[in-house]
């Protein structure tokens, strides 16, 4: 294994959390979590509730680096591909700076990509430019198997945003457990909803897991317009 520290690209959602957990299980020396906070919709990053990543980091006991670019996806960017490249620039600049602060630099990055070639190809290219390995344990895994592994490991996963046919307001704040997974499989058959929400059908927050010392507790209200919905977090703390 290359000398140096590992950095986990981390949103607090299930996929990046699982990648981090698998890295910890494989004794990769993860010394920093890095969270990007997009100001609006993003082609590259998980958007909702990224502010709670700091609570997750405290529970995991790994220091967190926040990246808050002034502008993601400027209006003059002509297409999604160019916007993705532009969105990556603040992250890459921050990682380059972080490498100078870590003993031995950055040896590797963890990423929670499952099926998105759009995201993964860009992260792979960035890792190459940083001379870092990429650890992406979810990449091209079978979605239901992955979800079952997360649940078996003890992940507590809360659905915080929905945007797909069949996902109504009752899903907001719901725990992604075996019953929910079975319903998602049915919705996959009926509407094509991805079991892991890979197409943006839903977003999640990991509120507890074997890598966390204390669970994240939430107080929230829900907003749903008939097709899309999100939880509005009023308060959050570690239990």
Which properties best describe this structure?
alpha/beta; 239 residues; 24% strand; putative n-type atp pyrophosphatase, domain 2; four-stranded antiparallel beta sheet
Structural class, judged by helices and strands?
alpha/beta
Into which percentage range does the β-strand content fall? 15-25%
- Total count of helical runs of at least 4 residues: 6
Instruction: Calculate the terminal CA-CA distance, rounded to whole Å.
Output: 36 Å
Largest sheet data: 5 strands, parallel
Can you say what the CATH homologous superfamily of the largest domain is? HUPs
> What is the class of the largest domain in the CATH system?
Alpha Beta
Order of helices and strands: EHEHEHEHEHEHEEE
Q: What number of structural domains do the residues give?
A: 2
What is the overall shape?
globular
Q: Largest beta sheet: what is the strand line-up?
A: 3-2-1-4-5
Low-pLDDT stretches? 71-81
Radius of gyration: 17 Å
What is the count of β-strands? Answer: 9
The residue-averaged pLDDT reads 89
Proper CATH architecture of the largest domain:
3-Layer(aba) Sandwich
CATH topology term of the largest domain: Rossmann fold
Helix content: 25-40%
